[in-house]
Amino acid sequence: MLKIPGKGRSKDEVFERLEAFRKDDVDWRSGRTWAYVYDPGPQAEEVIKRAYMMYLSENGLDPTAFPSTLRLETELVAMAASHLKGDDEVVGNFTSGGTESIILAVKTARDYARARKPHIKEPEIVLPVTAHAAFQKAAHYLCIKPVLVPVDPQTFKADPNEIRKAITPNAIQLVGSAISYAHGVIDPIREIGQIALEHDLLLHVDACVGGFLLPYFRRLGAPVPDFEFNVPGVTSMSMDFHKYAFAAKGASVVLHRNKDLRQYQLFTCATWTGYTMINATIQSSKSAGPMAAAWAVLNFIGDDGYLEIARQVLDATQRIADGIEHIDGLRLLGRPAMNLVAFTSDTINVFHIIDEMKTRSWYVQPQLSFGGSKENIHLSINPASVKWVDAMLADLRQCVELAKGLSTAGGDDAMQQMLQQLDPTTLTEETLGQMLAMAGIQGTGLPQRMAAISGLLNTLPPAVAEKLLTVYFNDLFRYSKPS
Ligand SMILES: Cc1ncc(COP(=O)(O)O)c(C=O)c1O
């Protein structure tokens, strides 16, 4: 077992080691990584880091002891609310990320229903299959049933008719995305808002990725429908600063139409022996660093700076979408409303394309097939990637040609049928380990080429894939001596 070093190490050694740990990480600074990091460039980065360090040790747990944190939070929430067309009634809180914002919005709906509709004993939330997995995580944590509904198979936008059909007397909340992560499209929030009003349901709009830049895209002339608080029926929204506002992680906001709703988000506890406990968020003690960094970056880049960033990424996205449509064998999934793009192929194994791109130091993200969305490749277009558009498209064209010579996904029909019949409840860890080994995974190491494992996950029934991933992660997060 690893032990705390007997004697403290020198500062130099500590930092050398930390630096060395990063050697295999994706090289996000290069702009060749099309997911995970939202890079505002070196000038803003300096401001973010300084603000973060300045507030590193202030504790957001108690705004009476640290009024600075209250000031930061209320200013951030007010800026977010006005950005999303909220009025003075809109309230909210700063959270650690989209997932926390979403869990809090679902908790609010659950506790609101407990108070206002106590006859509902088994609450349900209605989720288009394109809603972020964080809603299913929230449902899992909060003992709520997620009701998944199909989306339009061409546009990948939520289908109001399907939502309407899925509403039972147990429904408490509807969900729409602006934009959805997988396909980068905006759900018809106006129609969903109407359904929410007709059925007296809450409606959360997940604007974690889209909330910040969409209003700028609209100002630049892009066709962005209303998705904000000006839409009747919308009761809460989430928007991440740590995505397209380019703040440091974790920085997001959850907003409610009014205080009456927000009260159900709060947690208080007066039945213990310690300090007075009132938490607006899931985290209790928390560094004020992310909040200060978010405040700093909004103030540093400013409205005109964000408009300029939006202009650049909008142009780059259009060039990429057009470029992909001109590559033989590829097609877009949906029409991106912002700067997230998904594309697939009906003849080529897209997982090989991803591996080929990796050999040329591009990181592009695989997305598995589900609910009528074929397995595909996802790109998030960042300011740092704008300079790479032509080079990336040229490499993509070549990688598609190379992938044409490689196997198509999934194995033969007999194998497919066998995998489909697997029963997750009877699968042993040993069998799952053998499946991982067949896909080239030994222990917790990952192969250079991921097409086999992605292909396997793509073919397995979701419940089996989930079990396989659990087995893998359960081993991954254990210390093993570096070789
Ligand atoms: C639409 C959407 N909602 C929620 C989330 C969850 O955000 P986070 O990863 O910050 O928890 C994401 C993350 O990509 C997202 O794209």
Strand coverage percent: 5-15%
Can you summarize the main beta sheet?
A: 7 strands, mixed
Q: Quaternary arrangement of the chains shown?
A: single chain
CATH class of the largest domain: Alpha Beta
The low-confidence runs, each spanning 5 or more residues with pLDDT under 50, are none
Order of helices and strands: HHHEHEHEHEHEHEEHEEHEEHEEHHHHH
Provide the domain count: 3
In helices, the fraction of residues equals 40-55%
CATH topology of the largest domain: Aspartate Aminotransferase, domain 2
pLDDT averaged over residues: 94
Topology (SSEs and partners):
Blueprint: H1 11-21, H2 42-54, H3 67-83, E1 91-95, H4 98-116, E2 124-128, H5 133-142, E3 145-149, H6 160-166, E4 171-177, H7 189-198, E5 202-206, H8 214-219, E6 236-240, E7 252-256, H9 259-262, E8 267-269, E9 277-279, H10 289-325, E10 330-332, E11 340-345, H11 350-359, E12 365-367, E13 376-380, H12 389-404, H13 413-420, H14 429-438, H15 451-459, H16 462-476
Parallel strand pairs: 2-3, 2-4, 4-5, 5-6
Antiparallel strand pairs: 1-7, 6-7, 8-9, 10-11, 11-13, 12-13
Helix pairs in contact: 2-10, 3-10, 4-5, 10-12, 11-12, 11-15, 14-16
The structure holds pyridoxal-5'-phosphate.
Pyridoxal-5'-phosphate (PLP) binds at residues 97-99, 102, 132, 134, 177, 181, 206, 208-209, 240, 252.
Overall description:
- With 483 residues, the protein is an alpha/beta fold.
- The chain has 3 domains: 245 residues, Type I PLP-dependent aspartate aminotransferase-like (Major domain) (Aspartate Aminotransferase, domain 2), CATH 3.40.640; 92 residues, Aspartate Aminotransferase, domain 1 (Alpha-Beta Complex); 64 residues, no CATH class.
- The protein is built from 16 helices and 13 strands.
- The strands form 3 sheets. A 7-stranded mixed sheet has the order 1-7-6-5-4-2-3, sandwiched between helices. A 4-stranded antiparallel sheet has the order 10-11-13-12, covered by helices on one side. Strands 8-9 form a two-stranded antiparallel ribbon.
- Strand 8 and strand 9 form a beta hairpin.
- The longest helix is centred in the middle third of the chain and has 37 residues.
